[in-house]
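Per reviewer request, we include the raw input and output of the structure prediction for the construct analysed in the revised manuscript.
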Amino acid sequence: MAAAIKPVTVEDVTAAVNEKIDHQQFRQAQAKGEKFLDGKADVSGHLAWAIARASAQSGDHDLAIRYTEQALNAHAVTGPQAMVEPLMEPVRTDIRFVSLLAGIGQTQAAPAQANSLPPTPHVKKTAPSTAIRMDGQGIEVKAGDIVIKLPN
């Protein structure tokens, strides 16, 4: 009987989380993925990306950004893919999300601190199709064909 019990894998949980997302059960998807990870990082990044999408839709922006960072670090998703993902719409203008996708690394900063911009223009190239410009007028992020402008 014990031989019939199969351990749950990250792939199984990712599939289950994605199925819940497909049925718009975002809070359940988020909870299932987080319970499996139990505070550990997702090495593959695929479960982290699923949790990020579910978290964004359930209104938990902090988790959405944290899991997006894991997915990006694991190369499960690219910055331009994350930027155009429809389920990430709720966090698309969050300065922490924009900074993460542009490679600035401000995801740990509090939103109020992350909104203070340097007085002089600063442009950082992070990849051939990704750049960020910060100046006294605001922030502009380019990821592929997408440009987001956030005024001060």
